[in-house]
Design a protein that fits this description.
Largest sheet: 8 strands, mixed
Order of helices and strands: EEEEEEEEHEEEEE
Structural class: mainly beta
Keywords: Cell membrane, Disulfide bond, Glycoprotein, Immunoglobulin domain, Membrane, Receptor, Signal, Transmembrane, Transmembrane helix
CATH architecture: Sandwich
InterPro entries: Ig-like_dom, Ig-like_dom_sf, Ig-like_fold, Ig_sub, Ig_V-set, T-cell_Activation_Regulation
Radius of gyration: 18 Å
Number of helices: 1
CATH topology: Immunoglobulin-like
Strand order of the largest sheet: 1-2-3-11-10-5-6-7
Number of domains: 1
Main location: membrane
CATH superfamily: Immunoglobulins
Shape: elongated
Number of strands: 13
Membrane topology: Single-pass type I membrane protein
CATH class: Mainly Beta
Subcellular location: Cell membrane
């Protein structure tokens, strides 16, 4: 298990590993765990694969409810396929098939975005080339209230 902390967020990566006496070699992360505060402007859901994916590859991000979070196909985003909840809140990097960086930026995260997201690369509907999961936890802001001589916590 590899844990990286940067800025206000945390990323934990579970990966397959090969061990030899002198090196630890990480190959292909199986899943990521990302934690972010709800006051952040955006959060990056990481997903990388080999560079130079086929030009006809389809990249699809889905949530645990099987809603389409983001779809990239035929060289461009496909917003008409995207679930309304995510519309105008997601973006992917340019040249993603060439670089293999399929990471998704989700803007204005809230506690409702806490979910398991899956990045799926396919050729056609049935030929899945890769699947990777990202577990996202968006931490809400707690507000302490003093009411009638007692402290209460509520999401702010």
């Amino acid at each position: 298990m590899l844990h990286i902390q940067g800025g206000d967020g945390h990323v934990t990566i579970r990966a397959a590993a090969a061990v030899c006496p002198t090196h630890l070699v990480l190959c292909c992360p199986l899943e990521y765990h990302v934690v972010v505060d709800s006051e952040e402007e955006s959060v990056l859901l990481p997903c990388r694969t080999r560079p130079f994916l086929p030009g006809d590859a389809r990249v699809e991000w889905r949530d645990r409810g099987d809603r389409k979070v983001h779809v990239y196909e035929n060289g461009s985003d496909q917003p008409e396929e995207q679930d309304q909840f995510y519309r105008n809140r997601t973006k992917m990097k340019r040249n993603l098939l060439r670089t293999g960086d399929l990471s998704l930026t989700l803007e204005h995260p809230t506690d409702r975005d806490t979910d398991i997201y899956t990045c799926i690369v396919s050729r056609g509907k049935e030929n899945i080339l890769m699947k990777k999961e990202v577990h996202l936890k968006v931490k809400g802001q707690w507000l302490n209230l003093w009411v009638k001589g007692q402290w209460f916590k509520s999401l702010g």
